[in-house]
Amino acid sequence: MIDPSATATTGLLERLEAGPVICAEGYLFELERAGYVTAGPYVPEAVLEHPDAVIRLHRDFLRAGSDVMLAFTYYAHREKLRLIGKEGALEEMNRTAIRLARTVAQEGDALVAGNVCNSNVYVDGEPESARMVRAMFDEQVGWAVDEGVDFIVAETISYVSEALLALDAINEAGLPAVINLAIFREPLTREGLTPAEACKRLEDAGAAVVGLNCVRGPATMLPLLRSIREAVSCHVSALPVAYRTSANEPTFLSMSDADCACLPEGRAFPTALDNLACNRYEIAEFTKAARDLGVGYLGVCCGAAPHHVRSMAEALGRRPPASRYSPDMSRHAYLGTVPEIPEANRTFVKGM
């Protein structure tokens, strides 16, 4: 077990009482783009095979303003590792991921969070399914507790009943739980509950933070947050994907790109979303709107990159280390406004 003296001095709930907390996510997509994760199975093998790449991304997110180093254990569960024939690496992958997150967290004042996620094998109403999924949650939570995480995130879960299994495992471990639901095209859980009803059930069962992550982008997640905030008294979370979802295409799974005729099976998700990404300014606008609704646990999920996280931090009035290199267009060779920029350049750019 990790030495407790190595953990952060201020816990999650104390930080949330003082103001918003940022948790950078998006590890799967960012490391897939860099060539360290296979799209499709999306198992975080990079934790064991390329730990330097994982550490580098943790460090980039820390410099960009993330208050939390989320252990890269999304899809590091028994079902996924069995699928790729590496079930024997399960415990090592989970423990190593937390240690990598802690290595970087100690470079700043960041919390370390364990992470469990949708099991993909849960069937609502089937006791044997519930038993199997609960066992999956128990072993991951157990390793996270043994490694001394500050809190645990259970996320991208579309069944409230499955989320409650994860929450119960975290509650038994005695750690704060952040429970994030994934809401697909219909604005309901897979049991048919509204996000507000679902989050209220999770709060009543002991979750410290409830809300939404993944699947929906800023434009289609934001309308759901108001009702959640009104339904619960605990802290609320919001971590959209960094893509321009819309009323017609409310999830990143449903997004199309009419300008590209070479999409695999005609679908942009998951490897051809580049042209549909949010820019940093859109993430900043979402951050301010969510904060104004009373959302305190903020982040960006799939598609997130360090510049999105920095924009989120700056929208909250912060200046993380990476802000030293935030844009300064006053010194651009053509768009600049300082006296040193030749007037001929400023004139020329008008016709570009």
User: Strand order across the biggest sheet?
Assistant: 1-8-7-6-5-4-3-2
**Averaged pLDDT, please?**
95
CATH topology term of the largest domain: TIM Barrel
In the CATH hierarchy, what is the superfamily of the largest domain? Homocysteine-binding-like domain
CATH class of the largest domain, anyone? Alpha Beta
Which structural class is indicated by helix and strand composition? alpha/beta
- How many strands appear in the DSSP assignment? 8
Sheet with the most strands, sense and barrel status: 8 strands, parallel
Overall geometry comes to globular
Question: Helix share of residues?
Answer: 40-55%
CATH architecture designation of the largest domain: Alpha-Beta Barrel
Unreliable spans are 1-6
Ends apart, CA distance between termini: 61 Å
Strand content: 5-15%
- What is the count of distinct domains? 2
Radius of gyration: 21 Å
What is the count of DSSP helices, taking H or I runs of 4+ residues?
13
H/E element sequence: HEHHHEHHEHEHEHEHEHEHH
Describe this structure in words.
Strands 1-8-7-6-5-4-3-2 form an 8-stranded parallel sheet. Residues 1-6 have low confidence and may be disordered. It is built from 13 helices and 8 strands. Helix 8 packs parallel to helix 9 and helix 9 (195-204) crosses helix 10. The protein has helices spanning 12-18, 27-33, 46-49, 51-64, 78-83, 90-105, 127-146, 160-173, 195-204, 218-231, 280-293, 306-315, 343-349; strands spanning 21-22, 68-70, 111-117, 151-157, 177-181, 209-213, 235-239, 297-298. Helix 11 links the parallel strand 7 and strand 8 (297-298). The protein has 2 domains: 6-319, Alpha-Beta Barrel (TIM Barrel), CATH 3.20.20; 328-352, no CATH class. The chain is of the alpha/beta class and 352 residues long.
